[in-house]
Structures are given as C-alpha cells and as structure tokens.
Amino acid sequence: MNNNSPKKIDTYSVMPADTPLSGEITIPGDKSISHRAVIFGSIAEGTTTISGFLEGEDNLSTIAAFRSMGVTISSPVDGELTITGAGKDGLKKPTSVIDCGNSGTTARLLTGLLSAQGFSSTLTGDASLRGRPMKRVVEPLTLMGADISGAEGGDKLPLNIEGKKLKGITYRTPVASAQLKSALLLAGLFADGETSVIEPAKSRDHTELMLENFGVDIRLEGLKVSVSGGASLKGTRVFVPGDISSAAFFIVAALITKNSEILIKNICINPTRYGIIDILKLMGADITLEDTVASKVGEPVASLRVKSSKLKGIDIDGSLLLPAIDEFPIICVVALFADGETTISGAGELRVKESDRIAVMAEELTKIGAEVEERPDGILIQGRGNHNPVYGGLTDSHGDHRVAMALAVSALLSKKGIKIKDASCVDVSFPGFFDLLERVRNK
Ligand code: S3P
Fold it and tell me: Terminus of the chain with fewer CB atoms < 10 Å: N or C?
C-alpha cells in the first residue's frame, strides 16, 4: 500500500465450505522472482522481457522505484512487461523519495543497490515497513564503505543513502535472509574486488539463479556466495513461475475440506522454497507433483495435485521452517485441523515480518475458538482434527496479507464463517485471492 494513500479499511466474509473444492487453477507469479527480474532488468544492458510477472502491490513498488530512477518499464499487461535496461551506470538520482510501500524486499535490496550509486537517495515505506529492522543490511553495507543514516541509528526507514564507491568484503550473516544476502550481492556488483556472503543456513537462492541468467559469474561454495565488482548484466527473457507461498493457501484449503481435489499448475518448486510441501507431507498430506520441468530461468516448476487428507500434528523446528518461512500463518491453520499438537520453534524472525506473525496468529486464532500457546520463538497449536470446526467470528489481518489469506482458509472449517478486517491487503502478494477462493468452492 502506498505510504501516502489513505489506508483501505474493509472487511471480507468467508463462509464455511459446504461443497468439496475442485478444479484446475493457476496462481499469480512468484513475488521474490518478480522483484529480482525488475531490479536486474533495470541495471542490465539491453532489453529484458518478463512474463508471469506478479502485479501485486509489492512488485509495483519496485517498478515505481526504478521508473523514478529513469528506467523505462512498460506497464504490465497480463503479467507481460518489457524493461529497457539503463545499464550498470545508467540509474539517475530518483525524482523523489522512494516509497517501498509494504515491501521489505524492495527496501532491503534497494538499500544495497543505492549505496553504490553516484547519487543520494531516500527510502521509506508504510507504517509496517517503517517498523522493520534495517540494521542487518545497513551494518555490513557500512563495512563496505556505504554512508547510510536513518531513524533509530539507521535501523529503521526512512533511510538516507549517500552513494559511495564501495569495497568488497566477506561477511557472515547472523541470520539466513535472502533479502540481506541479495542486498550485499547487489552492492558487490558495484564494489571494488570480491564480495562474499556466508549464511548460517541456505536462504532462498533466486538472486543467485537469476544473476547467472543475466550473464553474471556468481560463485557458490557451500553456504558461501561470491560476486566480483564490475560484472555487467545482459538483458534477458524471464519466465516467472507461480508462487508456492501463494499456492500454499489453496493447498491447505483442499487438504482440510472433505472430498476435495485440485490441480495447481506451474508452481515454482525451488528446493529453498519447498519446505511447505515437506512439512505438509510429514503431517500426512496427499500431494503429488506432475509435469515437473526445469524452466529457462533455472527455477524448477511443477503442477501440484492435492487431495483432502487426514493430517497429524508434528514438531517443526527452525531448519524445517526456513524454506517455508513465509508459510507460518497457513501452517498454523493446517495445524489447527490436524489431529494432535503441532509446535513451531526457532522462528523468532517471524516477529519482524509484515506483522509480528507469532503474536498475531496466536491472537486471531484464539478469537475464532482455537487453543494456542504463543512462545518467544514460535507457537503451540492444539489440533482439533478435520471433523471439529472452529466457531468463527470477527478477525483482523493486522494489515498483513498472509495473515488475511490464512484466516480466510480457516473459515472453510468454521461453524459461522469468518470476517476479516482490513482484508484488501491480500493485494500485496495475491490480487484476486478471494475470487479464486470462491471459484474453487464452485460458488
Ligand atoms: C524474501 C526473503 C524472505 C521472505 C520475504 C521475501 C526475498 O525475507 O520472508 O517474503 O524475496 O528475498 P528474509 O530475507 O527477511 O528472510
């Protein structure tokens, strides 16, 4: 949502499922890959064409940012767009403050990129984004020679960035974060010498795969990723597959609704994003992959056939959750309709996402009749099985798109249905979510 636009206040009602879910669906493009396609296309030489682009608010914030730096980007039509790359040294001082809206990926990746430009710039965002930590990015960039200042000692937006000549470093990140890794690699493309990032565990690797696709020599050695300054990018064709994080809501909807079977086409099954399928299979889910292919951007793609399943609670630790980090809200919902307890631990990062997702999911699920225990780094959910609906009632998305969609799915197994306040935030990552949910319910 734009920083200056009035907050949309709206409430959406989802009624219990009275019919099985069925049909073949496609899901909008992957949010992380769509951001990277615009960022790399903008600093590449020549033209980049993108298909399957996610026209969500977060990605539109990224497009607006590069347009304000003089890059010509066509308006997306049915996910197709063209970027006339400005080249490595072609970005211009932005015409105004760059508003990243709700998008952490835009803010963090641009902090890396802008640190190394020949101009000054300011980044800001909406209230949620202005509350999220930036120090994890600012600190290593400062070690590279960046000049960044901002609220709370540079930990919070707005950030003022004076572009500087940077030097490459080797940096061990304290958290596995693809936004942090990507910010440093972007800065590294402009720095003197080599920049290496070593993570404690492997975060999503879309930056590495896409940089390779843009012709950059990117070196991988276990958990270490390196780029050399001076490398140039060549415009290319990017095919964005469907977002597994968005598909997750429909996967769980089909699993918990009796006698359902759906086919979700063309989903990115990159191993660094596949955690949700592994977790659901451990819980007993009937999910099969069909038509698996390695797409041209190096991202593996498949269709997912999902049938309703009897599920059991499990213990999910930080390493199991990492490749499903954005799926926490919907994992809480599936756990609610499994037999027995589910625990999630090692998930402190969830407190600094679009909302404090641990606190918010505990609060909202309690409102609809669930038994949950909030823990410092996770949650315990008492499963009630798929024959024991929750009561339902009025809930609040807290402006968090993934919370809104998870609550909508929980309504399928409720007695009274669920109302979700501030539901239009789904547009951040999944425009058309509610229409698609109605369609698979054969309404
Ligand atoms: C993202 C990385 C993850 C994820 C976010 C998108 C990306 O954040 O939660 O939704 O596109 O790089 P962190 O890097 O903070 O883990």
Answer: C
Which ligand 1 atom sits closest to the C-alpha of 207?
12
Considering the domain boundaries, does residue 3 fall inside one?
no
Among 214, 239, 264, the domain-final residue is: 239
Best substitution site from 30, 31, 32 to test ligand 1's pocket, by max atoms within 8 Å of Cβ? 32
Last residue of a domain, one of 186, 207, 239: 239
Catalytic option among 58, 99, 326, 427? 326
Residues 427, 326, single domain; the answer is yes
Using DSSP, state whether 80 is helix, strand or coil: strand
Does the annotation count 326 as an active-site position?
Answer: yes
In which region does residue 126 sit, left (phi positive, over 0), alpha (psi from -120 to 50) or beta (all else)? beta
The rounded distance, in Å, linking the Cα atoms of 432 and 155 is 34
Strand locations in 184-228, DSSP E? 194-198, 219-221, 224-228
Its pTM surpasses 0.90:
yes
* Same domain membership, residue 312 and residue 174: no
What string of pLDDT tens digits covers the 443 residues of the chain?
334 444 455 999 999 999 999 999 999 999 999 999 999 999 999 999 999 999 999 999 999 999 999 999 999 999 999 999 999 999 999 999 999 999 999 999 999 999 999 999 999 999 999 999 999 999 999 999 999 999 999 999 999 999 999 999 999 999 999 999 999 999 999 999 999 999 999 999 999 999 999 999 999 999 999 999 999 999 999 999 999 999 999 999 999 999 999 999 999 999 999 999 999 999 999 999 998 887 666 899 999 999 999 999 999 999 999 999 999 999 999 999 999 999 999 999 999 999 999 999 999 999 999 999 999 999 999 999 999 999 999 999 999 999 999 999 999 999 999 999 999 999 999 999 999 999 998 75
Q: Quick check: 83 and 71 in contact, CB under 8 A?
A: yes
Residue nearest to atom 13 of ligand 1 (CA): 177
Residue 225, strand partner residues: 197, 220
Count up the domains in the chain and report the number: 2
Do 219 and 146 have their domain in common?
A: yes
Instruction: Tell which one of 204, 225, 400 to mutate to probe ligand 1, the residue whose CB is within 8 A of the most ligand atoms.
Output: 204
Q: What's the 320 CA to ligand 1 centre distance in angstroms?
A: 16
| Residue 367 structural domain | 11-29+241-441
What is the CA(32)–ligand 1 centre distance, in A?
Answer: 8
Instruction: Check which CATH number belongs to the domain holding 321 and give it.
Output: 3.65.10.10
| Closest CA to ligand 1's atom 4 | 326
Shortest-distance atom of ligand 1 to CA 245: 10
